[in-house]
């Protein structure tokens, strides 16, 4: 039975239960603080005042209303850093209440502030708290998942406080699922990762849990250093910020209780009593009831060790009403302990009466509610009023059922009409798909033919190169003149083959979108004059080019380098073309359509349009370039003016 009390005490130490403080002046004090804040103008001073108030009152009943006031004022002033701080404190309130859903709402708020405030600590600390709340609801796997996810985020964003909080929550989940060894490894890892930036409450929580695990295992020698560090950290933070003393009361009581257990296990009852007295001195109205109960339970163990049976029984009678109201699952353990104490005392009749009392109360224990709690629930949820409304609800159910059926009929009709509409759309889509399939098949036939032609055009010059190369290498009786001639033929065919392959690759890059055009404003007449002059120089007297235009200056949007290449391909004949050409470059501007028209009369590229595939590919490249800028490109080999190329360009300025 003594071991049962120890386990019960350890369980209660890990599950804080927050209730409203019983201080009669609490509401008056709270109202006076908020009235001061309401009287202040909406400036940063007001936010700083509320921040300090919240920081000093992280305990019920003040933590939630003060945190709410800070958050609302920050929202009203649109001050994101203070909104983040208010949301953090509100999340802490629901962390103490173990409410995962409401806590998750505020965690989402904190996540939305991360990028603006530049820190992940607040968000990750409270996300880790969701894991602890889930663990308290026995949702172990979900709690472990959230803790590990938080740990991963903390490591990614280098948040030490988020990391320690995640380790703490993961260890809590392991503890609840009776995986003590794994929990201890996680806690020790968190301890090793402490830095000067680690928040005190995270340090204390980790140290407390490590001491708890070692204490449960009976390893007092291992527990002692961590308990000492916990005590030292608490003393330091209270001495540095005495105005926050009440924020740390629960943890200070927890530390004293652990000291009591430590000294009792070592048989040092005087030291144990000293720490019991220290714990009792901390029992003020703002302390959570569970810590008050922990002090009473450790006192029971003390009386058991010192065989003070009457004091033990009296204390159980004092504690029982509170346990019955708030900790029904603990009630049977306490009553059994009382009966065992009576037997140790020699009061067998009293023990029998105690056991009878326990059996009589078993029904209420099964329901986990005392009569007082049932009355509270009835008042909170207005059960009497709900019963009066029951008949009204029943009457409206028939109307709602009729409306539901009518709505269902309308929806069925709409569904029928919609399916008919979809059927028509599907029929149209099927026709379009069939047409597209036919076009795709035609395109495939064209591609196959083009592939065949390209293979032939590549194979012909390649065969020439290979054939003459074999003659040169294998024949030892060739005249020097023949060798020179064969070498020249190899060079010409290799160059033609290289130009052809380069043209194909260039067209492929254009069609695949790998080549990008620059869109820049250019003065087109200047480009044309330069292109004509360049062609005359390259032609070496074989080209007579005349520029025929009524435009002095005109801006267009184009790629200057590509436009120059276009002109060069139209004006300059191939290297092996020794013919002379009379070329007219005619440029006209249509004001109504806003289009500049270029007509290249006598161009060598139009004359040799069908002579070889390289020329055809050059036309495709030119057309692709002009189409990209919104123009058209036409080739006419037989006209009364001669072979010509016409292309247009949209105007972009005067």
What does this structure look like?
The protein is an alpha+beta fold. Among the domains are: 199-288, no CATH class; 389-515, Orthogonal Bundle (Helix Hairpins), CATH 1.10.287.130; 520-650, Heat Shock Protein 90 (2-Layer Sandwich). It has 26 helices and seven strands. The protein has helices at residues 2-13, 26-39, 44-56, 63-77, 80-96, 100-117, 121-136, 140-156, 160-176, 180-192, 200-216, 220-240, 249-265, 269-281, 289-306, 309-326, 328-345, 348-360, 362-367, 371-381, 383-474, 480-512, 524-539, 560-571, 604-607, 613-628; strands at 520-523, 543-549, 555-558, 581-590, 595-601, 633-636, 644-650. A hairpin with a 7-residue loop joins strand 6 (633-636) and strand 7. Helix 3 (44-56) runs antiparallel to helix 4 (63-77), helix 4 packs antiparallel against helix 5 and helix 10 (180-192) runs antiparallel to helix 11. The longest helix has 92 residues, at 383-474. Mean pLDDT is 80; it is low at 1-24 and 368-387.
Secondary structure elements and their pairing?
Layout: H1 2-13, H2 26-39, H3 44-56, H4 63-77, H5 80-96, H6 100-117, H7 121-136, H8 140-156, H9 160-176, H10 180-192, H11 200-216, H12 220-240, H13 249-265, H14 269-281, H15 289-306, H16 309-326, H17 328-345, H18 348-360, H19 362-367, H20 371-381, H21 383-474, H22 480-512, E1 520-523, H23 524-539, E2 543-549, E3 555-558, H24 560-571, E4 581-590, E5 595-601, H25 604-607, H26 613-628, E6 633-636, E7 644-650
Parallel strand pairs: 2-4
Antiparallel strand pairs: 1-3, 4-5, 5-7, 6-7
């Amino acid at each position: 039975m003594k071991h049962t009390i120890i386990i019960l005490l350890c369980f209660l130490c890990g599950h804080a239960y927050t209730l409203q403080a019983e201080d009669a002046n609490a509401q008056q004090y709270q109202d006076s603080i908020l009235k001061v804040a309401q009287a202040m103008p909406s400036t940063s001073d007001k936010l700083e005042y509320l921040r300090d108030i919240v920081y000093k009152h992280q305990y019920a009943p003040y933590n939630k209303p003060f945190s709410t006031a800070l958050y609302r004022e920050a929202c009203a002033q649109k001050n994101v850093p203070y909104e983040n701080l208010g949301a953090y404190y509100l999340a802490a309130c629901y962390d103490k209440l173990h409410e995962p859903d409401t806590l998750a709402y505020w965690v989402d708020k904190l996540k939305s502030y991360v990028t603006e405030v530049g820190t992940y600590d607040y968000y990750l600390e409270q996300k880790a708290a969701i894991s602890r709340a889930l663990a308290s609801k026995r949702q172990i796997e979900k709690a472990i998942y959230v803790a590990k996810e938080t740990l991963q985020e903390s490591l990614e964003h280098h948040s030490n406080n988020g990391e320690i909080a995640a380790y703490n929550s993961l260890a809590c989940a392991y503890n609840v699922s009776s995986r003590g060894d794994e929990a201890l490894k996680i806690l020790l890892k968190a301890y090793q990762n402490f830095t000067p930036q680690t928040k005190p409450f995270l340090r204390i929580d980790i140290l407390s849990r490590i001491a708890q695990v070692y204490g449960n295992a009976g390893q007092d020698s291992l527990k002692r250093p961590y308990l000492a560090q916990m005590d030292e950290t608490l003393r330091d933070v209270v001495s540095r910020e005495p105005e926050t003393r009440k924020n740390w009361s629960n943890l200070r009581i927890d530390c004293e209780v652990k000291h009591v257990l430590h000294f009792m296990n070592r048989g040092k009852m005087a030291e144990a009593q000293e720490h019991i007295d220290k714990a009792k001195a901390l029992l003020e109205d703002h302390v959570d009831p569970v810590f008050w109960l922990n002090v009473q339970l450790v006192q029971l163990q003390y009386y058991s060790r010192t065989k003070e049976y009457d004091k033990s029984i009296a204390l159980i009678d004092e504690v029982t009403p509170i346990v019955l109201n708030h900790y029904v699952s603990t009630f049977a353990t306490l009553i059994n302990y009382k009966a065992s104490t009576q037997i140790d005392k020699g009061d067998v009749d009293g023990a029998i009466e105690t056991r009878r009392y326990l059996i009589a109360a078993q029904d209420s224990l099964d329901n986990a509610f005392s009569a007082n709690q049932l009355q509270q629930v009835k008042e909170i949820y207005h059960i009497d009023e709900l019963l009066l409304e029951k008949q009204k609800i029943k009457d409206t159910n028939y109307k709602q059922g009729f409306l539901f059926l009518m709505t269902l009929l309308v929806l069925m009709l709409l569904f029928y009409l919609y399916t008919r509409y979809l059927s028509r759309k599907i029929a149209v889509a099927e026709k379009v798909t069939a047409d597209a399939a036919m076009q795709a098949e035609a395109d495939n036939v064209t591609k196959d033919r083009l592939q065949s032609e390209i293979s032939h055009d590549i194979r012909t010059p390649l065969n020439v190169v290979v054939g003459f190369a074999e003659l040169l290498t294998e024949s030892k009786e060739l005249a020097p003149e023949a060798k020179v001639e064969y070498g020249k033929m190899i060079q010409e065919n290799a160059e033609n083959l290289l130009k052809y392959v380069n043209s194909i690759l260039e067209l492929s890059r254009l069609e695949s979108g790998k080549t990008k055009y620059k869109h820049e404003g250019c003065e087109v007449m200047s480009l044309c004059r330069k292109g004509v002059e360049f062609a005359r120089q390259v032609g070496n007297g074989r080209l007579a080019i005349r520029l025929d235009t009524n435009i002095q200056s005109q801006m267009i949007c184009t790629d200057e380098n590509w436009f120059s290449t276009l002109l060069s391909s139209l004006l300059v004949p191939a290297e092996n073309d020794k013919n002379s050409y009379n070329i007219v470059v005619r440029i006209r501007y249509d004001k109504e359509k806003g289009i500049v028209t270029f007509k290249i009369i006598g161009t060598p590229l139009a004359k040799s349009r069908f002579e070889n595939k390289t020329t055809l590919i050059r036309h495709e490249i030119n057309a692709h370039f002009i189409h990209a800028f919104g123009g058209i490109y036409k080739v006419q080999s037989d006209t009364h003016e001669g072979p010509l190329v016409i292309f247009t360009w949209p105007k972009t300025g005067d």
